[in-house]
Design a protein that fits this description.
- It is a single chain.
- It is elongated, with a radius of gyration of 31 Å.
- It has a two-stranded antiparallel sheet with strand order 1-2.
- Strand 1 and strand 2 form a beta hairpin.
- The N terminus is likely disordered.
- It has three domains: about 110 residues, Fumarase/aspartase (N-terminal domain) (Fumarase C, Chain B, domain 1, Orthogonal Bundle); about 240 residues, Fumarase C, Chain A, domain 2, CATH 1.20.200; about 60 residues, Ribonucleotide Reductase Protein R1, domain 1 (Orthogonal Bundle).
- It starts with about 30 loop residues before the first helix and ends with a helix.
- The chain is mainly α and about 500 residues long.
- Helix 4 packs across helix 5, helix 10 runs antiparallel to helix 11 and helix 11 runs antiparallel to helix 12.
- Helices cover about 60% and strands about 5% of the residues.
- Bound molecules: arginine (ARG).
- Arginine binds next to helix 6.
- The site of arginine has 10 residues, from helix 6.
């Protein structure tokens, strides 16, 4: 250990007790260098994962005969007591420690004395931090999946209420064809479903144990990495110790999934912002989910949705931060990697928070079917149905498209919409039109013509709802089989 010899220059230095290293140094570390390099403020939230990893490691060391069984037991009991005391607030996550690993070892010494020094046998902070981080990411996969299902449930509930609500479906933000509101809302269900499936797909790549890699080359003592992996619920062990300590792909993938989920939420937020303007008037947000103005008393602003849209940019930035952090690193562990956690924590916190507020905002929103229906009058959104009619009478689609285009021009010049057209208007452009064509110009008929698998007909949307509910059920079942970090701890402690 370093001697705490104050330098003649008066530079402040660090007391040796807080550092896990120092034997080979003549002078102590400067306080400023410790402050600059400490990650404790950020990685203290890994305390449960760190203690859990250490419990598993100590059990394995005892079983492998690397430390005495009685010492292993003492360490495990000490760690369990520390975990309990942090949980109850008896022990505060405070100190000038370099990181959570140093904190835990220092505290353990308070409980069991010098035996604490045996915990770090055949382990490095390099494989330890990768283990903690993977355990944390695994738990976050569960939390994100849960949050996504709540968002999906809110969309399903609103869709069920609005199967018969019609509105103009848009392309280029221009009225295109009538659709059911349920159909529109469920589009977001499927985008989120893909995010969920990406999380499920990521799990096996997160759930790999780096323990046994030690610093980089593997442990020099006869450890049993399979046993620690099994205790921690990892499904496999890393195949290459150098990769094990330097790989952060799992974190990049997780942040990418967060970024894409945020992009989906942001698009929904944008539509809600637009729809809640008086010009649209398609939706009214619940008082609890919109805000006022400090100067304009009449205002009801969609700030929550705007913040979700804004925060999507922050999470996209986090992905770039993380990839940039890693891209220039030679194998294996480099201290740069310490910056990974703040980036990932931020991205995950924002995504969880956004999913939570958006699901409540959607669940409590009131959609306005009259305004939506009104927007379909005079908007020519059934023009394609008329072209399809001519196609069924043998007219090539390109020609049918042109004829209906001319009709739209003719009617709009007269200040009329398609629903105002009479048979004479139609006949003027094609002899193929008969009276039955007029019935097509109603949006309610237009949606019903779209019965194919993914279309907006009532039957198709109902089938889609059933499929969405079945997917949700499957996810909930998957989640029920997913142990929480606390359940994993109980299991390791044999309770
Ligand atoms: N705080 C470090 C991190 O988050 C832990 C590993 C430190 N390892 C080392 N060799 N300095 O990456």
């Amino acid at each position: 250990m370093r001697k705490n010899d104050k330098r003649k220059s008066g530079e402040k230095t660090v007391s040796s007790v807080t550092l896990l290293w120092g034997g080979r140094f003549k002078k102590p570390l400067s306080e400023e260098a410790l402050k600059f390099s400490s990650s404790f403020d950020v990685d203290k939230r890994l305390w449960k994962h760190d203690i859990l990893g250490s419990i598993a490691h100590a059990i394995m060391l005892g079983e492998a005969g690397i430390i005495d069984a009685s010492e292993a037991e003492k360490i495990v009991k000490g760690l369990a007591a520390l975990m309990r005391d942090i949980e109850t607030g008896e022990v505060a996550l405070e100190g000038s420690d370099e990181d959570i690993h140093s904190f835990v070892e220092r505290k353990l010494r308070d409980y069991i004395g010098e035996t604490a020094g045996k915990l770090h046998t055949a382990r490095s902070r390099n494989d330890q931090v990768a283990t903690d981080f993977r355990l944390w990411c695994r738990d976050v996969i569960r939390q994100l999946a849960e949050a996504i299902t709540r968002m999906q449930q809110a969309l399903i509930d609103q869709a069920e209420k609005h199967i018969d609500t019609l509105l103009p479906g848009m392309t280029h933000l221009q009225h295109a064809q009538p659709v059911r509101l349920a159909h529109h809302l469920l589009a977001y269900f499927w985008a989120l479903q893909r995010d969920l499936e990406r999380l499920m797909d990521l799990l096996p790549r997160v759930n790999v144990s780096p323990l046994g890699a030690a610093a980089l080359a593997g442990a020099g003592l006869p450890i049993n990495p399979r046993r620690t992996a099994q205790l921690l619920g990892f499904s496999e062990t890393a195949k290459n110790s150098m990769d094990a300590v330097s790989d952060r792909d799992f974190a990049c993938e997780l942040v990418f999934i967060c970024a894409l989920t945020m992009v989906h939420l942001s698009r929904l937020a944008e539509e809600i912002i637009l729809w809640s303007t008086p010009e649209f008037g398609f939706v009214t947000l619940d008082d609890a989910w919109c805000t006022g103005s400090s100067i304009m008393p009449q205002k009801r602003n969609p700030d929550i949705a705007e913040l979700v849209r804004g925060k999507a940019g922050v999470v996209i930035g986090a992905l770039v931060q993380l990839l940039t952090l890693i891209k220039g690193l030679p194998l294996t562990y480099n201290r740069d990697l310490q910056e990974d956690k703040a980036i990932v924590f931020n991205a995950v916190d924002i995504t969880l928070g956004s999913l939570s507020v958006m699901s409540q905002l959607v669940a409590t929103a009131t959609f306005n079917p009259e305004r939506m229906r009104q927007a379909l009058t005079g908007d020519f959104s059934t023009a394609t149905d008329l072209a399809d009619y001519l196609v069924q009478k043998g007219v090539p689609f390109r020609e049918a498209h042109h004829i209906v285009g001319q009709l739209v021009l003719h009617l709009s010049e007269k200040g009329k919409g398609l629903e105002d057209a009479n048979l004479d208007d139609l006949k003027l452009l094609s002899e193929k039109f008969d009276a039955d064509a007029l019935s097509l110009l109603v949006p309610e008929k237009s949606v019903e013509r779209r019965k194919e698998l993914s279309g907006t007909a009532r039957r198709s949307v109902q089938r889609q709802l059933r499929q969405a509910k079945a997917k949700l059920e499957r996810t909930l079942k998957w989640l029920r089989s997913f142990p929480t970090i606390s359940e994993q701890i109980q299991q390791v402690l044999g309770k």
